[in-house]
């Protein structure tokens, strides 16, 4: 009885949509037609067949999404752990204050985050370029240059979500035994040695959790590129979810869009399994 409310919500909003989405992906399902013919795996074949519009849309978005994952996930891990180590070294009286300051952006919706950074980085009227102009420097095309557009999106994402990873790492660091650090001090271990041989092995399960969740979240990026660059310049920052939404609601092909979403989910699962196996294998070897 205690888990029943959660179970009902879980089935209605996760299990049922998942199964229904799989069912739709096996049909020629157009929004403006009431005739939804069953076509088996044809939607998947169209996506995987080179030269088709579905193939180009899916793999273009996938490549851009992989770029964002590669650009963002390492920074989310490194800065999250770095902030956690920094805050843990502060006096107890100010730890809570700075922890709150860094975590606050995570409580803001993606639309507000995108508008804030768009306001700051706009080429013509952005706050950053206005400040640069006061020093006699020219405007920088933060959102209209491909490389700078990716930098801006990753920067906004890092500012927005790194506080969540920081809090998780802080909790993990607090579970590291102080006796191990004291024993290492007696043996003359340096701070680097203690971090490498005590801290990292102890928090490795949490590190794996943060790595997997950050990768999944980065794969599901949508709001930042959509609101900040509209997929531009050109379509250089058009990520996979933007392509799926375009296929579903602009081209009205729900069947192939659902197939794209299923393939995206399978790719995320495979990458998560690889990360889990790789880290555990490395741990066994060491």
UniProtKB/TrEMBL annotation:
CDD domains: TM_PBP2
Native organism: Macrococcus lamae
Origin superkingdom: Bacteria
Transmembrane regions listed in the UniProt entry: 7-26, 68-88, 100-120, 148-170, 206-223, 259-279
Protein's cellular compartments: Cell membrane
Residues of the ABC transmembrane type-1 domain: 62-275
Gene3D superfamilies on file: MetI-like (1.10.3720.10)
Record-linked PROSITE patterns: ABC_TM1
Cross-referenced PANTHER family: ABC TRANSPORTER PERMEASE PROTEIN, INNER MEMBRANE ABC TRANSPORTER PERMEASE PROTEIN YCJO
Protein name: Sugar ABC transporter permease
């Amino acid at each position: 009885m205690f888990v029943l409310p959660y179970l009902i919500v879980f089935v209605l909003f996760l299990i049922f949509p998942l199964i229904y989405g799989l069912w739709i992906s096996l049909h020629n399902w157009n929004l403006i037609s009431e005739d939804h013919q069953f076509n088996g795996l044809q939607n998947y074949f169209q996506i995987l067949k080179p030269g088709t519009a579905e193939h180009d849309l899916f793999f273009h978005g996938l490549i851009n999404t992989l770029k964002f994952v590669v650009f963002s996930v390492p920074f989310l891990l490194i800065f999250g752990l770095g902030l956690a180590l920094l805050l843990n070294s502060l006096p107890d009286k100010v730890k809570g204050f700075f922890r709150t300051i860094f975590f606050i952006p995570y409580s803001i919706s993606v639309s507000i985050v995108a508008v804030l950074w768009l306001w700051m980085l706009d080429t013509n009227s952005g706050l950053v370029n206005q400040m640069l102009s006061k020093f006699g420097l020219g405007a920088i095309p933060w959102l209209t240059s491909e490389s700078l557009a990716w930098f801006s999106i990753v920067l906004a994402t890092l500012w927005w979500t790194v506080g969540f990873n920081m809090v998780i790492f802080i909790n993990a660091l607090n579970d590291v035994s102080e006796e191990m650090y004291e024993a290492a001090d007696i043996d003359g271990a340096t701070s680097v040695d203690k971090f490498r041989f005590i801290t990292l092995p102890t928090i490795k399960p949490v590190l794996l959790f943060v790595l997997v969740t950050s990768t999944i979240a980065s794969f599901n990026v949508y709001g930042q590129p959509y609101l900040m660059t509209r997929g531009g310049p050109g379509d250089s920052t058009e990520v996979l979810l933007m392509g799926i939404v375009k296929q579903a609601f602009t081209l009205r092909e729900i069947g192939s869009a659902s197939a794209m979403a299923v393939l995206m989910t399978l790719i995320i699962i495979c990458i998560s399994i690889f990360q889990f196996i790789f880290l555990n294998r490395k741990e066994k070897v060491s």
